[in-house]
């Protein structure tokens, strides 16, 4: 039934099949970290040796019959995708027409289409939705305008540790929430427990929760993304897109379809772009239509490029740069804690988190902070130790790779509080050798988000 509906609804908008991608003999040149805007549940970090062509990904212990497929699996296959298990799904790491480095550069210069359908999409509604989300996150949920969103974190009640990072958007009648694929089982158990606790308190208003199973999600990223998306939207949607800024979302319609899509301006690469939530029956047809409408500017991109892009953009990878033992303050995410929340608290772990926001002279602060590093010599990978001049351990690397844009080795990790200022010289132990490194500001590559003008 779904197949017939897709053909009937979307065929008028399509202009034929895509030109097959050219075959290349390139091989991955980066160690791949797995994510989000996603990642395996946190566990003890271990250092391990990896060759340049080793690919690291989530759910590596999953057997073939346990790995699911997104609605775009066949499309990936037809474009020569190389698949890896990722967050419980078989996901493309790269394609036959571009190396990971070339795909990275293509995104920065043109536009790429990423399949993020492995992410978990939710709806929270009902009279208690605002208050419930305010309890489990530190964000100012009640002040989010309609069709606007915020990055946030789900928090453990006692410790303020991060259960998962998430994006929360307010729609007219509900909240749209996206969480990480590899945290799915943990997140579902957490949300079930939290909702049961919420509803056990008789004074709390009802909250309805729906997981959008099989809902498509694609990310159109790069400087040419707005032009490409405008080509396939109907006239009314194009006009709305011109006024859509970073962090905002809108309902839209693709030409010749009846599919109701949600377009959010943002993404995981640091470039201007959009994440598009699509009904299951229309996902493949709309992705194909986008590719077919911009054959010279748009290409599919996989997890390899997505990982190097997000690290250049200074974005965290849950299960590596963030985990259950990390608070938002330690993770350099204090900005997600709303001003009203700082004054009144009322969220999980508030006593710990609010105390961490205080100065050390007031009895607050943290012992470590997430920072960026520029490293000389060989690239540092997850698990590498950060040491001082005397060889004493003062931190650790959580993500690292050669930067295709900067032509330098970059990394993210944690360092002892007080040594976290940009320009601080340290050393990183790579393959048993100490390499010179310096604490650096993030993002490593300036973000190009389409932001609203700042009012004076």
Structure write-up:
It is a single chain. The chain is α+β, with helices and mostly antiparallel strands and 456 residues long. It is built from eleven helices and 19 strands. The protein has a six-stranded mixed sheet with strand order 10-11-12-9-3-13, sandwiched between helices. A six-stranded antiparallel β-barrel has the order 14-17-16-15-18-19. Strands 5-6-7-4-8 form a five-stranded antiparallel sheet. A hairpin with a 4-residue loop joins strand 16 and strand 17. It starts with a helix and ends in a 16-residue tail after the last strand. The N terminus is likely disordered.
Q: Going by CATH, what is the homologous superfamily of the largest domain? A: Probable tRNA modification gtpase trme, domain 1
Broad CATH class of the largest domain: Alpha Beta
Strand content: 25-35%
Whole-Å distance between the termini? 54 Å
Major sheet size, sense and barrel closure: 6 strands, mixed
Mean pLDDT: 88
Helical amount = 10-25%
InterPro entries: GcvT, GcvT/YgfZ/DmdA, GcvT/YgfZ_C, GcvT_C, GCVT_N, TrmE/GcvT-like
GO molecular function: aminomethyltransferase activity; transaminase activity
Protein name: Aminomethyltransferase
Subcellular location: Mitochondrion
